[in-house]
Amino acid sequence: xxxxxxxxxxxxxxxxxxxxxxxxxxxxxxxxxxxxxxxxxxxxxxxxxxxxxxxxxxxxxxxxxxxxxxxxxxxxxxxxxxxxxxxxxxxxxxxxxxxxxxxxxxxxxxxxxxxxxxxxxxxxxxxxxxxxxxxxxxxxxxxxxxxxxxxxxxxxxxxxxxxxxxxxxxxxxxxxxxxxxxxxxxxxxxxxxxxxxxxxxxxxxxxxxxxxxxxxxxxxxxxxxxxxxxxxxxxxxxxxxxxxxxxxxxxxxxxxxxxxxxxxxxxxxxxxxxxxxxxxxxxxxxxxxxxxxxxxxxxxxxxxxxxxxxxxxxxxxxxxxxxxxxxxxxxxxxxxxxxxxxxxxxxxxxxxxxxxxxxxxxxxx
Length: 365
Description:
Shape: globular
Strand content: 25-35%
Helix content: 25-40%
Structural class: alpha+beta
Number of helices: 12
Radius of gyration: 21 Å
């Protein structure tokens, strides 16, 4: 099924006789149960006000279309959503609805926040076929359920997004990256913590134990007005010893941070792909336990990408830890099991929004 309007989408959900697999662009390789329900027919930017830094788009709008419109006005989505296709070996076209349904957030999350922090309003169809609207084109403080935040990261299990309203930001005038070579994982996490704890407004902090040249590399990004970037880059470089340099070339910066954002080091490689969320200070020990073939630290060590031998149960290998492990490519359940109290809350919320239990059944715990 590929509805062409919100009314058709509501009719399709209301008339469903069994589970539905909700699919945007198909780039994240979501595996669920039941008939396919595609949102790609609901496409187009319906409102864009550059002066107000707001945009409204139908959920099936290709992400590339949104980014092109923003770039023409010197603006961007500050949360820097990644493209999963190279990492997961999928095809299709990422959609703006899929970005928010999965709360896809890139390296700039450490400074700008997650995708959900830029979502102003949503329209969606719940599991009964009812159309629900929450939020708008401006940020407001209201009482009651914050359905906007609830839908971001629900992966289509509470409702099928039909339209999103989002906040955008101007493109920065300049950027720079402090590049530190040769650090161990422990040293790199400490260096990233020092940078993020500094007053220099870091917008990215990543570390590859094995970089493109085969050696460890740590990357710390700053953005803003040219004079400010130049000043802060020198101050940041002075915080570190050893092989430290400053990269200012725009093309190299874009390529380098796309390499981090899309986890390009693992593209086309065999095995299972895991996404580990944890306390940065715990990350090096967890990585050592994991025994991964490839590793990439992002968010100052709070996010770790791991490529493991096919069939390796990372959760069993790590045991209990403060965080969660998501299996993006492999035979294991995608999402980390929830603690019993959280699972009870999840079941209660899902029963309210999807009483028939038909939306992306079995995808989340």
